Amino acid sequence: MTTFDVIDPATAEKVRTVALASLEETDAAIDRARAAFPAWRAVAPGDRARLLRRFADAVDGALEELAALEVLNAGHTIGNARWEAGNVRDVLHYYSAAPERLFGRQIPVPGGLDVTFQEPLGVVGVIVPWNFPMPIAGWGFAPALAAGNAVVLKPAELTPLTALRLAELALDAGLPEGVFQVLPGAGPVVGRRFVTHPAVRKVVFTGSTRVGKEVMAGCAEQVKRVTLELGGKSANIVFADADLERAAATAPDGAFDNAGQDCCARSRILVQASVYDRFMALLEPAVRGVVVGPPGDEATAMGPLISAAHLAKVSSYVPADAPVAFRGSAPPGPGFWFPPTVLAPVSPTDPAAVDEIFGPVVVVLPFTDEDDAVRLANAGEYGLSGSIWTRDVGRALRVSRAVEAGNLSVNSHSSVRYWTPFGGFKQSGLGRELGPDAPDSFTETKNVFIAH
Ligand code: NAD
């Protein structure tokens, strides 16, 4: 049996050993899901809704336990981890309203009646990354279950603990066996099998753009439905007319939340040249003030990186001669610590300004005018999120329309609300999650004509 040692990123100590599913076990789980599907789709809408509400309540009852597990397994701050468990609960509650609202349409036709049905797909495979193990799992499984599908879910190798607990809570809440299964395992084994197994009718993948392309290519073999949520290198655009104090005070949140391991991290700050010096003077104390420390402490704002390998990758973007404008602090270790770091001046073509570093490293680039800001923001292949700081409503709207990204916020850094759609432009993704339409993306539209 292959196993994986789960490590606490804050201490580098082993937390637990988890058995990894083999190919045979994956096939067996997919078979169980396939067998469970007909009865699950036949559950009356109101009853399916009730079961999802019970699942949500079970998550709520275990909120502190789930949050503590995520602090231990992923090094998330306790405040973030509570929000993440609460997000699973809320997403379940939100989509528990969907079974009774999976409307079709009645379309006028001559000679009969034409109606559409939203039919569930069957088995859906959800592949989750390590950076937000709970929310990203919930964004996939909640609407998929609500639409009447059976779900097999693979957490990231590094962070399986909360997903395993969620599967137990689903059973406790009364979801039938086989309807929601969690399979810890290697990406190229379990994840890949979701792609190649013909009974899996859709893959929801969140992770790197590199693996996402592989998943998409694999799904093409069977014309399998696929949703991709991939990487980002989002811009935080600060115009000269903005509330500079607020823009600077919140920029660390936008870039360093979850230690920068956030696909929506605003890791490029674009500042209008006329206020560049003033902005940097305001940014410095904000960055130095980020409290980096044990993730279980209530006062901590930023915890460690996920692993030693990831720490090495992030560190490679800040070599000894890197243009560090200023940086915060971090504990010396053990654990995978990296201080919040601001790089400037940097060329827009520098790897630090182009690559998704996925750590607490932000670059600051000056721009001249609105066109220049949009040009810089749209450089590169990513297009996930971004922020625009200005007091000019017209400019806010013009720039919002011009930036090629799926999730923008004006005068804030918020990007993911479960009741609004979320996803990427360009190579940041394909399809949308969350929002009112997510259950539809776990169905096929069927048209039926009935002659008079
Ligand atoms: P990753 O691509 O390495 O892994 C993601 C998941 O895919 C893991 O569960 C992994 O085991 C699995 N996997 C690996 N190889 C596979 C294969 N050949 N076939 C099928 N599955 C396979 O990504 P990661 O390092 O875990 O996560 C970080 C990345 O995720 C970043 O690029 C980040 O931007 C992205 N991300 C995107 C979003 C979004 O919503 N757009 C959200 C969070 C993270």
Overall pLDDT score: 98
Range of helix content: 25-40%
Question: Are any ligands bound, and if so which?
Answer: nicotinamide-adenine-dinucleotide
Number of domains: 2
The fourth-level CATH homologous superfamily of the largest domain is Aldehyde Dehydrogenase, Chain A, domain 1
Question: What is the CA-atom radius of gyration, in angstroms?
Answer: 23 Å
State the secondary-structure class.
alpha/beta
Strand order of the largest sheet: 12-13-14-11-10-15-16
| Named CATH topology of the largest domain | Aldehyde Dehydrogenase, Chain A, domain 1
The second-level CATH architecture of the largest domain is 3-Layer(aba) Sandwich
Inertia-based shape: globular
- For the record, what CATH class of the largest domain applies? Alpha Beta
Q: Largest sheet, if any?
A: 7 strands, mixed
Cα end-to-end separation: 61 Å
Proportion of beta-strand residues: 15-25%
**Count, helices:** 14
Active site: 229
Family: Belongs to the aldehyde dehydrogenase family.
Pfam family, one: Aldedh
InterPro entries: Ald_DH/histidinol_DH, Ald_DH_C, Ald_DH_CS_CYS, Ald_DH_CS_GLU, Ald_DH_N, Aldehyde_DH_dom
Task: Give an account of the 3D structure.
The structure is a single chain. With 452 residues, the protein is α/β, with parallel strands linked by helices. The chain has 2 domains: 3-230 and 428-451, Aldehyde Dehydrogenase, Chain A, domain 1; 235-417, 3-Layer(aba) Sandwich (Aldehyde Dehydrogenase, Chain A, domain 2). It contains 14 helices and 18 strands. It has helices at 23-42, 45-61, 63-74, 78-96, 133-146, 161-172, 187-196, 209-220, 244-256, 276-288, 308-315, 351-354, 370-377, 393-402; strands spanning 3-8, 13-19, 106-107, 112-120, 123-127, 150-154, 180-182, 200-206, 225-229, 235-238, 268-272, 324-327, 341-343, 361-367, 385-389, 407-410, 429-430, 443-451. A 7-stranded mixed beta sheet has the order 12-13-14-11-10-15-16, with helices on both faces. A 6-stranded mixed beta sheet has the order 7-6-5-8-9-17, sandwiched between helices. The mean pLDDT is 98. Nicotinamide-adenine-dinucleotide is lined by residues 127-132, 136, 154, 156-157, 187-188, 191-192, 195, 206-208, 211, 214-215, 229-232, 263, 356, 358, 384, 424, 428-429.
